[in-house]
Amino acid sequence: MSIGEMLAATVPMARTLNLEFRETAPDKAVVALPDQSEYHNHVGGPHAGAMFTLGESASGAIVLAAFGAQLSRAVPLAVSAEIAYKKLAMGPVTATATLGRPAEDVVAELDAGQRPEFPVTVEIRRADGAVTGEMRVVWTLRPNDAG
Fold first, then answer.
1. Which of 19, 33, 42, 138 is the most exposed place for a label (fewest CB within 10 A)?
2. What are the structural domain ranges in the chain?
3. Does the structure show a pLDDT above 70 at 6?
């Protein structure tokens, strides 16, 4: 099962929005939100909540790609998220997520018994390439023996 299939199977909101997981690798994740009128806002573009879910889903996809081997001993959890809406988004939009710290540094902290935190940055673009949103999600790997 691919990361996109796994997220669609385990995260109902990803299924609800019909998110398309186009690329899921440890260094980049790309997720698209098709243009769907039922998720439009008052000006006919994707609703802010749908764009937030798109960005958070892209961040989750890269976390699973980068740290999937750690799932037997830690659970990834979003700690905080910020989003800035830069330009009007119309039509389909695509989110591209990148890790803000080297994965090996995060795993080394986990190996040392710590609960590492790391940022994921996300750019949301419309079809013409314009950046319509920027997001930063801070994630942690919570060791399974932690509360």
1. 42
2. 3-143
3. yes
